[in-house]
Amino acid sequence: MIILSSGARAAGSTNGAPSRVVVHVVNPGENLTTIAARYGTSVTAIVASNQLGNANHIVPGQRLRILTSGAAPAGQPASTGAPTTAVHVVSSGETLSGIAWRNATSIAVLVSLNHLPSAGYIQVGQHLLVPSTHRSIQTSWSTARLGAQTQGLMARRAWTRDLIVTEAQRAGVPVSLALAVAWQESGWRQSAVSGAGAIGVMQLLPDTAEWIADAMLHAPVDIHDTRSNVRAGVTLLKHYLVRYRGDLRRALAAYYQGQRAVDRHGIFPVSRPYIASILLLEEMLEP
Q: N or C: which terminus of the chain carries fewer CB neighbours within 10 A?
């Protein structure tokens, strides 16, 4: 239902067609995204105009004041220049990190946009606003949130760090995630060798490297060479992100316990501390 106000005009609207305030009565099944699209405005503008505490929570019968432009043709949204958003419904097994990756944004943006009390707490069926204007994968990073000792270690391994950044940008993997995985695996040290025989910065087994070379890179992989090791490991991470549709927990579990094990048995309990450590480090490495 739409109720037009009596000749209201936007403050400062002196050029072109006058703007007017429309009172929209929320119908069952509507959300702010669909309402904003209908009137050619943004969710942010509606939230601000109505002083809404939670953009996810509107109820049928609620009245919303919406500023519209009289110049906009019927059915054609007027451009406001404000960021636009979409609604993502949380599915079972999803994480905030995975949703951020899939929508090419950051955890911090999602927390701010949805007024979330905790970056780690979302529920199945919850409606999250996600920026629809963000089209590029997160490519920046920062060590500002880390302790001085860790910052110092990372600074001394800057050459390897820069390789990881370059390969993550090339593969379209969030830089902070690639850095976090490599730090968890080896501390960005090519000299690291695990008890199981995993080698280098990304801790790759020889047979895994062969699989990456044949099925993904279609080029030889030398796990003893730092650059080749990093490229192969980041490529494998990208493979898992795509395979599990941005579900970071399953992607990281596959990196740790293997793809077949995740597909057949899900995430092993022993993998959970590994996953939690990487997700925390990834968040701390975000700019």
A: N
Number of Cα atoms under 13 Å in the Cβ half of residue 137: 19
Give the class (CATH, top level) of 2-69.
Answer: alpha beta
Annotated catalytic residue within 185, 282, 283, 286: 185
Residue 249 has pLDDT above 50, yes or no: yes
Across the chain, the runs of DSSP E, i.e. the strands, are 2-4, 19-25, 63-69, 85-89, 127-131
Query: What is the tens place of the pLDDT at every residue in 148-190?
Result: 999 999 999 999 999 999 999 888 888 999 999 999 999 999 9
2-69 against 148-285: fold identical: no
Q: Are 193 and 186 in contact (CB under 8 A)?
A: no
Examine the pLDDT at 108 and tell me if it is beyond 90: no
Q: Which of 230, 88, 127, 211 is nearest to 170 (CA)?
A: 230
DSSP 77-114: PPP--SPPEEEEEPPTT--HHHHHHHTT--HHHHHHHH
End-to-end, the C-alpha distance of the chain in Å comes to: 43
Domain 85-131 annotated CATH 3.10.350.10: yes
Q: Does 113 or 242 have the greater pLDDT score?
A: 242
CATH classification for the domain delimited by 148-285, as one of 3.40.630.30, 1.10.238.10, 1.10.530.10, 1.25.40.10: 1.10.530.10
pLDDT band with cut points at 50, 70 and 90 for residue 132: low
With a pLDDT cut of 90, the percent of the chain lying above it is: 41
Two tokens, residue 76: 């054609």
| Domain limits, the chain | 2-69, 85-131, 148-285
pTM > 0.70: no
